[in-house]
Amino acid sequence: MQIVINIDENVFTRLFDNGTEDYTIVNDDLFAIAKSIRKGVPLPKGHGDLIDRKELLKQPMDLANYPSNYVKVARTIIEADKEI
C-alpha cells in the first residue's frame, strides 16, 4: 500500500537529519509519526504518476503540443502503479 502523509518537519529532521539512532526516538515522535500515518491518504490501485504541479506551472506552455510535451517536463514524485 502506498500512502501520502504530512509529517511535521521537526519530527522528520530529528529522524533523518540529526543521525538519530532508532532506539533514541522519543515516544512523542513515535506518536506524531503514527498520527501522520493514520491521517495519510491511500493512493488508489492503478494510479498514474504523481507529479509536482508547480513545476508544470513554471514552464511555458506550447499550445501546439499541449498536453503531451507539457506534462513531460514535470518531475515525477511517485511512479505510477502498474497494478489495476
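That was protein one. Protein two is written in the same sequence-then-structure order:
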Amino acid sequence: MKKVLLFTAFICLIVSCSKSDSFSADDDMNVSLKKAKAEPVMVTVPFKADFVGTYMEGTGPYAECGPCDPENGECWGIVFNEGGGTATHLGKCKHYFEFCCDFISGIYPGPTEYMKAYLIAANGDILYMECAGQVITGRLDYHPDDVNSYFKDPFVILGGTGKFKGATGSGYTDDYNRDAYPDNSFHHWRGTITMIKGNR
C-alpha cells in the first residue's frame, strides 16, 4: 500500500512540474507579445471647420506670383489672411493663409502653385492644408446681402504636427467675402480627416 501511495505521489509531482513548465512558457510568450509595439491604427472621421479671417496689409501685386498686367487680363498678387474659429479635433483654433491669386480672374494659387495654409490648435498642434480654385464675383441666394464674392473649392489635408502627424483628408470649402471690416472673409469647410486612432 505504501509503495502504491509513493508511486502515485511521484506521478502527481511529475505532472505538476510539467504543467508549471507549460504555464511558464505561455507567460513568456504573453510578455513578449505585450512588449511588441503595436502598429498605429488609422481612422477616418468627419472634419468640420468654421472660421473668420481678415485680409492683412501687404496683400497686392507680387512679382514672384506672376505678372500684373491688367491690360492683358491678368494681375497676379499675394494674399495674406489670418483669423480664427473652431474646428473638429482642434477646438478653438487660429488660421493663417498666404497664397498667390489673379485679382482679375480670381484663380488661385495660379501657375506657381504657391500656398501656405494651416490651422493651429490651442495646444500648438498644426494642421497643414491646401486648396485651389477660383474666387467668383457676386453672391449666392443664401449668402448675407453684403457678400461681394465667394469660392466653393476642394481642399486637401497635408499632415501636421502633434496629433496631426501623418494626417490626410479632403473636402470642400464654402467661403465668401463681405464688405464688413476687419472680419471680411468667412470660411466653412466640410470633409473627412484620416488620423491615428486615439489622437482625436
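The two ends are 71 Å apart (CA to CA). Keep this in mind for the problem set.
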